Amino acid sequence: MRNRYNFTLSLIIVFMFFPALLFSGNSVNLTNKGSKNKNIIIISDTQDPLWIERLFLESNNNEKGREILFTNILKSQPDAVFHLGDLVSLGYSGDSWHAIDNWMQQLSKLEIPFYPTLGNHELMIFSELGEENFKIRFPFYSKTGYMRQIGPLAFILLNSNISYLSSSEISKQQDWYKSKLTECDSDTSIKVIIVGCHHPPFTNSKVVSPNEDVQDDFVPGFIQSKKSVLFLSGHSHSFEHFNYAGKDFMTIGGGGGLQHPLEAEEESEYKDLFNSPDNERNFHYLHCSISEQKIAISVQMLVEDFTGLKTVYELEQTYPQSHFVQIEKIPLPIQKD
Questions:
Q1: Is 45 inside a domain boundary?
Q2: What is the tens place of the pLDDT at every residue in 44-78?
Q3: What CATH number is attached to the domain comprising 251?
Q4: Out of 111, 134, 165, 207, which residue is the most buried by the measure of CB atoms under 10 Å away?
Q5: Helix, strand, coil % in the chain, rounded to nearest 5
Q6: Does the model's pTM come out above 0.85?
């Protein structure tokens, strides 16, 4: 009874203070908003560090770094913002939502739609309550996958928390995913597809491992789809870029969580195309510009002294090229020698 009371009270609060957030999911296709060129932001892992995590990983003014990212995203006024999960540290705790709620309220005032997917932190400890808190804020969310179209881009968001799904839900998501890829490949209004989920199929993180469920359930369809060009994930609190089977994969978990060290080049499992000497990458997000001719990606990363952001990596693809091309370098295959 108490949980039901808390759920109802939370719903009333969100309706009062965040009405635009509750209906942002109705804006399925933003092709008619403004100019033909569309700009979106993609971010992940914006949670506050947990005290137990601080025992094993160093802090780095995480909350300050996140706020700088949030402020710059608001200034850029994109057509939409996508989030790949771990919005908060503990999804069941109302206190954990304060920072992201405040930012979402500012996005709402600017009429910028916000489209997230579930991370593991939203479901940590009390998963049902965490999922309730998530659904209150994002009633349009489907735990078995959903899609948003921004101009000629189709962005497919999947739920990689496979252990929290029933067998029927796993099958439902798989069937929906395959059907949606086929539909998008045949849709002439769609030029390019991005697939996103929380857990990475590939990473050299010393903290988290490549996710075999994602490798088995999501990667094959992505590779087979003729318009799918970029697979995005978080969970690994770093920026990494891999190429596998002619397709591009990026982990972008640098939204504010404790930074993850990466394996040294000689010990890493995968060839990272982001040729940086740092084995810990600073806080960051992706800026994606979409036109009728091409898609361009830039990594906006916090500078070391926290005075601002800089573009540290740029890639672009002209349709229907099979993979992104780094502006000054052609990507190497993911397999190491």
A1: yes
A2: 999 999 878 877 888 889 999 999 999 999 999 99
A3: 3.60.21.10
A4: 134
A5: 30, 25, 45
A6: yes
